[in-house]
């Protein structure tokens, strides 16, 4: 982490002062308003141009001169049809079949730090099972004094906790180890979501069962056709593993593991077993498929790292990005997301010149443990090309590595844990390209 020099700090202050000047604000607002009008023209394609201009000030718009839809039309609300482009997307060549595929969150269109339930990324190894909660059971057995079987009702009688935590597939960014190939933020970083999860700490359930002293690991197993299973050390479980049945205020979506899933905050998404049906306590790891042939990190010398649980600090700029080009010169709020599996994000630096000079961004809104954290940097774009980067560091002192640092220590054979500093190239036209610099 380089501390900014006095010169850089002065520059930042000058820039900030410039950004706040009245003229600039007025200019931005004026242009902002005219852009909204432009967007309306796109949104109502098919309507005669004469019609929508009659909706603009000083006229009263058509929707203000008639009655709208009544209350029961949509008993479960959905977004406006003008937001239909905001949805999960897949990369067709990533997997042969949709039942063992991954869809990604539209990060470029999301606000704040919470991912709405319909936009949480999805990853299945054998599709989404349809589970009747009345027939679902969670079994706890192995090195415990009292093996137990819980119904959903049993689980919901325990005092609940609600925590905001991110989930990231360790394959996030994995297509970019050898070079830039995904021309959208949704595909470079979209295996990432953040929800408020509600359920019971697994520790509470294990206390009921009474873990024996030799119990050092648990195996969590899913009830889907894949029976996805991961070994998790007991220290993690006693620290913060959750058994959850709700996300963002409603019961889990089928895609996210309805009616019950594990959440291992800050750890590889695949350890957060969905459709959770079985917890076995043992004295060592199980070495199942998903921790041997998959979810291990092949190094340059042919050996592989294993049990690389933590999702290390990472960040990415979400505005501008390929999906959010800069539309006009003047004021711009550069925004992005930072996250770390080790705890809280401490800070994020921004570079406009590919990592030569850095300036601190502001963290805005909630800064929570193992949650997405939004950062912001207000500046002005005058049409100059930028090599935009963000670099996150967390409360443990871990600093997001450069691509060269990561490749030096890990090679390019891996799929997983690619958390290096990302570069967006802003062209003089305002378009944004995915590039790599070493
Ligand atoms: N039972 C089960 N649990 C599972 C999976 C699965 O296929 N089956 N996929 C895992 C993987 S690889 C990831 S990244 C996360 C994704 O969680 P999400 O689909 O809710 O985003 O779930 C994990 N839990
Ligand atoms: Mo994953």
Structural descriptors:
disordered N terminus, 3 domains, 8 helices, Immunoglobulin-like, 438 residues, five-stranded mixed beta sheet, binds the ligand Nc1nc2c(c(=O)[nH]1)N[C@H]1C(S)=C(S)[C@@H](COP(=O)(O)O)O[C@H]1N2, binds molybdenum atom, alpha+beta, Sulfite Oxidase, Chain A, domain 2, globular, five-stranded antiparallel beta sheet
Explain what this protein looks like in three dimensions.
The structure is a single chain. The protein folds into 3 domains: 60 residues, no CATH class; 224 residues, Oxidoreductase, molybdopterin-binding domain (Sulfite Oxidase, Chain A, domain 2, Alpha-Beta Complex); 122 residues, Immunoglobulin-like (Sandwich). The chain is globular, with a radius of gyration of 24 Å. A 5-stranded mixed beta sheet has the order 5-4-13-8-9. Strands 6, 7, 10, 11 and 12 form a 5-stranded antiparallel beta sheet that branches. It is an alpha+beta fold. The structure holds the ligand Nc1nc2c(c(=O)[nH]1)N[C@H]1C(S)=C(S)[C@@H](COP(=O)(O)O)O[C@H]1N2 and molybdenum atom (MO). The site of molybdenum atom (MO) has 5 residues, from loops.
